[in-house]
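Give me structure tokens for this 218-residue protein.
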Amino acid sequence: DRRLTDTGFSWLSPWLMTRRAGLAAYGRMTEDRRFRAPLSYAEVDPARLAGLFVPGGHAQGMRTLLEDPVAQRLFARAFLAGLPVGAVCHGVLLAARAKDPATGRSVLYGRRTTALTSLLELTAWNLTRLWLGRYYRTYAATVQAEVTAALAEPGHFLAGPALPVRDTAARPGRGFTVRDGNYVSARWPGDCHRLAADYLALVRSHRRSAATAPTESG
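Here you go.
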């Protein structure tokens, strides 16, 4: 949406627009040959995955991902295999909807997580709905409400500080993430410098463990 990158949201732009450094990083990523040759969910070979990360997004553009049963099964398989997995914002809904075939419950059942909080989602909606309508409301229920319903206990959803502050590359500690085993989650773009560092640490830890694990002989 060009409002996130170019035209802005009037006086709300400092909070809602994508930062220039983030746009530049995205531009570099789009030049990568692998980015330019995406696979459908059905084409992904789970056996070749080294990890799986689910980004966030706004409004109707996210629903094709969040509601896709193949994507849900793919996430569940990676999660249950112990691969490094992560999600942010609306992306956590895919994790909540991914089912463990052995139990029929969400793979997040028994885990701790965060996601886009109701406070963040409803605040953005109420501040912008006069000219953006339901842009910030993907579903009738908030992300926090649906994710919490998939957990073993409501207290397993961790909302973080009530007044979030955007982190930076130099100050990632301003961000908020939740790590539980092989899974790390965050709430909104303002957490993403810390989230990137935490997910990278998770991937590196998994690689070290895999490299030192005993191999079967025979």
